[in-house]
Amino acid sequence: MRSLQLARELAASEHDRLVYEGWILYDTGHCEEGLRKAEDSIAIQRSFEAFFLKAYALADSSPDPSSSATVILLLEDALTCPSDRLRKGQALNNLGSVYVDCGKLDHAADCYISALKIQHTRAHQGLARVHFLKNNRTSAYEEMTKLIEKARNNASAYEKRSEYCDRELTKADLHMVTKLDPLRVYPYRYRAAVLMDSHKEGEAIAELTRAIAFKADLHLLHLRAAFHEHIGDVAGALRDCRAALSVDPNHQEMIELHNRVNSQEP
C-alpha cells in the first residue's frame, strides 16, 4: 500500500495517477470507486494498467455473470497495450481463468499456453485445471509436475497436484506439503479422512489434533467433534462443539451437532 501511495505521489502523468488511485481504492475494498478511476484513466489514455485495473474491479464489483464477457474484452484490450512480460503473463493467466469459468476450455488453454511461452510459470496450474476439466487427470498431473520442477519447495503446487492422482500418490504429495509447510491445514484433513475410512479412528483424531494445535478453525473442530461422536466419545465431541460455538455461536451445523451430542450425555 505504501508503494502505491508513493507511486501516486510521484506519478508523471494524470492517467498514471488515476490508475494508482484506482489500485489503492481496489485494495481497500472500494471496487466501484476503483472502477471509476480506471475509466477516467482510459478516457485520457489507453494503457495496460488501466484496462487491467478495470477488469479486476469489474470482476469484483459486478455479481452479474454476463460481466465476464466485458472482463474478457478488457483483458484483451490490456494485452494490446505495451507492458512487461510479467504483467502480460498475469493478464493471460487471468483471462484463462475467466474462460474456464465461462466453460470455454479451449480458449483458456490457449491463454495459458501463451503465458507459458513468455515464462509465466504459474500458468501450468491453470492448464492443469483445464486438462482435469476435460477428464484428463494424467495430463493435469504432468502439468503440475512441470510447475513443481520449476518452482521448487512450493507446497501449494504439491497440494494442487495431489488432486490429480491416485490415493498413494496423493498421500505422498501431501506428506511433502506438510514437510515444506507444516501449517497448511488441508493435508491433515485429508489424512484424517483416509484414516477414518480405514477405521483408524484414534489416528484420525490425532491427525486433526495436530492441525487444531496451530489453527483451531470451525471446520477442523466440527470434523473432530463428528469423529468423537462416531466413536461414542460424548465428552470429547461436546468440548469441540463448545469450542467452535465460542468462535461462531450461530454456526448452524455446529448447533445441530451440539444438540444431538448433548442429548446423549448421561
UniProtKB/TrEMBL annotation:
It comes from the Eukaryota. PROSITE patterns: TPR. InterPro entries: ETO1-like (IPR044631), TPR-like_helical_dom_sf (IPR011990), TPR_rpt (IPR019734). Pfam families: TPR_8 (PF13181). TPR repeats lie at residues 89-122. Signal peptide: none annotated. Keywords: TPR repeat. PANTHER family: ETO1-RELATED, OS11G0585900 PROTEIN. This is ETO1-like protein 1. The gene is EOL1.
